[in-house]
């Protein structure tokens, strides 16, 4: 992705986990580590997905080290798809090995947002979370965990108005009981075709905000 990109192979419960770690510019003040999860593996989701790459670029530009990884059974990651259970173990393994201490941010796109929410439920409150970013949260297909009220001001939920994979209504049904705001991109599709620069700018604005 840039000159600071490093490819890693970590150890997870199902074997090795393929990881890309992107560092901010050397002159940037480091803010912590962001771990980013990709969309559904059975529908072509990988850590090279354009939305995932856009999230990584936004975090790096904001001074975060961005870590994205392939779920089990994808690319060079070993194992087989496990409907989110094993994938949450993969996510935790990456956090433990790449961000064991210091400021932590979590992000996920589509299926990755579901897995991220399950991981968050296991990390919080033992681990402080600085920022959360949900993009195309897969609330119509999976049980996305609720967000602790203490983290609402640190959470960005982005969804396309015309998402035909996860209807906006499903995300509103998930967010409404929590009184969790949802940022809707007018005309946006699930993959934000033609709107990735806008997606990036919205994430950058969120990352620059102080809770």
Concise description?
With 211 residues, this protein is an alpha/beta fold.
Would you write up a description of this structure?
The chain has one domain: Alpha/Beta hydrolase fold, catalytic domain (Rossmann fold, 3-Layer(aba) Sandwich), CATH 3.40.50. With 211 residues, the chain is an alpha/beta fold. Helices cover 28% and strands 23% of the residues. It has five helices and eight strands. Helix 1 runs parallel beside helix 5 (196-208). Strand 5 (104-109), helix 3 (111-123) and strand 6 (131-135) form a beta-alpha-beta unit. The model has no long low-confidence stretch (mean pLDDT 96). The protein starts with a strand and ends with a helix. Strands 1-2-4-3-5-6-7-8 form an eight-stranded mixed β-sheet, with helices on both faces.
């Amino acid at each position: 992705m840039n000159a600071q990109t490093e490819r890693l192979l970590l150890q997870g419960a199902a074997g090795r986990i393929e990881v890309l770690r992107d560092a901010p510019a050397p002159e940037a003040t480091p803010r912590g580590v962001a771990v980013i999860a990709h969309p559904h593996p059975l529908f072509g989701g990988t850590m090279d997905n354009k939305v995932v790459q856009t999230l990584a670029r936004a975090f790096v530009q904001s001074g975060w080290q961005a870590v994205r990884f392939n779920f089990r059974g994808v690319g060079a990651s070993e194992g087989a798809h496990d409907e989110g259970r094993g994938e949450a173990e993969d996510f935790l393994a990456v956090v433990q090995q790449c961000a064991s201490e210091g400021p932590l941010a979590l992000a996920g796109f589509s299926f990755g947002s579901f897995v991220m929410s399950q991981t968050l439920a296991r990390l919080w409150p033992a681990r402080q979370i600085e920022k959360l970013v949900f993009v195309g949260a897969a609330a119509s297909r999976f049980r996305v965990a609720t967000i602790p009220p203490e983290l609402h001001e640190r959470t960005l939920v982005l969804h396309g108005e015309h998402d035909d994979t996860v209807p906006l209504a499903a995300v509103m049904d998930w967010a409404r009981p929590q009184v969790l705001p949802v940022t809707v991109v007018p005309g946006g599709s699930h993959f934000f075709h033609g709107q990735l620069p806008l997606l990036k700018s919205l994430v950058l604005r969120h990352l620059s905000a102080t809770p």
